[in-house]
Amino acid sequence: MYKKILVAVDGSDTSKLALAEAVRLAKDFQSTVRAVYIVDSPAMLFDVGYYDPTELRKSFIEAGTALLADTAATLTSAGLANETTLVETTGVGEDVASALQREAVESGADVVVIGTHGRRGLAHAMLGSVAEKFIRQATTPVLLVRGQAKG
């Protein structure tokens, strides 16, 4: 049913749950798992004094590269065909959810597995939800894996 599974990873406990679910799904369908880490462009902050957004971006890329290497090892040890990719947001208007949707389309994913923190109320309103933004624009099936709600 699902030959290409795209799973979003960011190192959080919730994304670890999503990866575990993607592994289970891939074993059931003998699927290829493509793990994606999205690097969001650091915003220009004019009121915080000097900082170099290129250094912040560089640290995001380093962290994502390391996480993807660990993820590939996990998928390989599970006996699954796998790919990893680091994707950067492009342009001023693209956010993490939009970059994930772009990757889902470009990679030909049959399903996208993504974790959600399960926040409600004020915490949800203030922090927003990448998963919620993603499912609003997704053109492929989405499997949401809910983590423990915090707040």
Largest sheet: 5 strands, parallel
Assembly of the depicted chains: single chain
In spatial order, strands of the major sheet run 3-2-1-4-5
Question: What is the residue-averaged pLDDT?
Answer: 87
Question: What is the chain-wise order of helices and strands?
Answer: EHEHEHEHHE
Q: What is the CA-atom radius of gyration, in angstroms? A: 16 Å
The first-level CATH class is given as Alpha Beta
* Domain count: 1
Distance between the termini: 36 Å
List keywords for this structure.
five-stranded parallel sheet, Rossmann fold, 151 residues, alpha/beta
How would you sum up this structure, described in words?
The chain is an alpha/beta fold and 151 residues long. The protein has one domain: HUPs (Rossmann fold, 3-Layer(aba) Sandwich). Helix content is 46%, strand content 21%. The chain has 5 helices and 5 strands. The chain has helices spanning 13-29, 53-77, 96-107, 121-127, 130-137; strands spanning 4-8, 32-39, 82-88, 111-116, 142-146. The protein has a 5-stranded parallel sheet with strand order 3-2-1-4-5, with helices on both faces. α3 (96-107) packs across α5 (130-137). The radius of gyration is 16 Å and the shape is globular. Keywords: Cytoplasm. Belongs to the universal stress protein A family. Residues 1-146 form the UspA domain. Its main location: cytoplasm. This is Universal stress protein.
